[in-house]
Amino acid sequence: MTGIDLVNGIVGAVCGMVVAILFQQPLQDAWFRLRRRFATRVRSLTYREDGSPLST
């Protein structure tokens, strides 16, 4: 490994850590909101309007 490869590796690692720190929480929040919406829709499909569960 030459010096420039080492510098490129270090710069890439630092940039990756900065991006991960900046975007981790917003991406995690969006993922949990998406999962919650999906679960709510699936649950609403499995119940009838009168509140009783669908029987199979």
Q: Outline of this structure?
A:
The protein has 1 helix and no strands. It has 56 residues and is mainly alpha-helical.
Measure the end-to-end span.
64 Å
Shape: rod-shaped
Structural class: mainly alpha
The value of Rg in angstroms is 23 Å
Order of helices and strands: H
- Please tell me the overall pLDDT: 85
Portion of residues in helices?
A: over 70%
How is this fold's topology laid out?
Blueprint: H1 3-45
Describe this structure as you would to a colleague.
The chain is an all-alpha fold and 56 residues long. The longest helix is centred in the middle third of the chain and has 43 residues.
Features:
56 residues; mainly alpha; 1 helix
